[in-house]
Amino acid sequence: MADERLQLILLCCHPALRRESRSALALRLVIGTPTEQIARLFLVPTSTMAARLTRAKRKIVLAGIPIGAPLEDELRSRLDEVCRTIYLAFTAGYTPGAGPDLSRADLAGEAVRLATVLHDLVPDATQVRATLALLLLQHSRRDARQRHGRLVTLADQDRSMWHDDEIRIGLGLAAGLRPDEGFAEELRLQALIAGEHARAPTEAATDWTAIAGHYADLEARTGSAVVRLNHAVAVAEVEGPRAGLALIVGLDEILRDNHRVAAVRAELARRLGDTELARTSYRKAIDLCSNDIERTHLRARLDVLHTPDP
């Protein structure tokens, strides 16, 4: 195996382990992601994830699962879980959640490298090609995401700071993808969304109609509340903030501890002119946010709202 980490990920994705534990175990043992952050990625309590990881580690010992490169057919049978693990590892670096860092480019870059190694091994697999395309396109924006320690939104990023070589390769990979099934299709749709952002020379030139369409397909396939939140943002760009707000109704209960629901509601309410809803939502987002840079950004957005009359 070309990369020891990839080999260990394959071990953690062994079919003898419960499906819900495979990627989580790989993140903990191979990438070193803290249990609390893994729980956030999987939208479960930390205690639940800790118990899940303990059971999975015990299973490896009791089942005597060997460490070694799987045969070709075994490798292909585990590709979905391996790609899911690499993507979650990238997400853990790209949006680490708690702490002082907006992102960890080193961790995200390691995930890109693992995706590249996997693509070298099985370049014809849709999910592998889509994973590498998606990660390259998102990682290409890393240098523009903050300035002087402050968050810079996608709309305000200096696109000359994006890595054109990574965008070119990512778009080339995405262009060769054909509709598929299962997780491979989910990754393909995400790569297409990232591609629309990457190819737009300005925020105004972004094809939000295409992005909203891809998110609608992705939401229909996954039923994911996080996807619906992103879908709402895209719909708001196409149909206006009121349409976006309608799509996030009920998400607070599903994504109870996720500050981004309140943050999106605040932004859309502000655009709609509902200052009171915007102010309330910004405050809720600030209370829930555990990342220092994002919290500073949210406070700044709240500060620019007009102070209510006495």
Oligomeric state of the chains in view: single chain
**Shape, per Cα inertia axes:** globular
* CATH architect. name of the domain at 218-304: Alpha Horseshoe
Number of strands: 2
CATH superfamily of the domain at 218-304: Tetratricopeptide repeat domain
| Low-pLDDT segments | none
**Pairing-aware structural class of the strands and helices?**
mainly alpha
CATH class of the domain at 218-304, named Mainly Alpha
Query: Mean pLDDT across all residues, rounded?
Result: 87
Q: Strand percentage, roughly? A: under 5%
Taking strands numbered 1, 2, ... along the chain, how are they ordered across the largest sheet?
Answer: 1-2
Radius of gyration: 20 Å
Q: Output the number of helix runs.
A: 17
Q: Give a quick account of the main beta sheet: strands, pairing sense, barrel closure.
A: 2 strands, antiparallel
Please bin the fraction of helical residues: 55-70%
> What is the H/E string?
HHHHHHHHEEHHHHHHHHH
Q: Layout of helices and strands, plus pairs?
A:
Blueprint: H1 4-12, H2 19-31, H3 35-42, H4 46-63, H5 72-77, H6 79-94, H7 105-121, H8 126-139, E1 146-147, E2 150-151, H9 164-175, H10 182-199, H11 208-222, H12 225-239, H13 241-247, H14 251-254, H15 259-272, H16 275-288, H17 292-303
Antiparallel strand pairs: 1-2
Question: What are the salient characteristics of this protein?
Answer:
globular, 310 residues, mainly alpha, 17 helices, Serine Threonine Protein Phosphatase 5, Tetratricopeptide repeat, two-stranded antiparallel sheet
Detailed description of the structure:
With 310 residues, the chain is mostly helical. Helices cover 68% and strands 1% of the residues. Strands 1-2 form a two-stranded antiparallel ribbon. The chain is built from 17 helices and two strands. The mean pLDDT is 87. The chain is globular. Strand 1 (146-147) and strand 2 (150-151) form a beta hairpin. The chain has a domain at 218-304: Serine Threonine Protein Phosphatase 5, Tetratricopeptide repeat (Alpha Horseshoe). Helix 2 packs across helix 4. The protein has helices spanning 4-12, 19-31, 35-42, 46-63, 72-77, 79-94, 105-121, 126-139, 164-175, 182-199, 208-222, 225-239, 241-247, 251-254, 259-272, 275-288, 292-303, and strands at 146-147, 150-151.
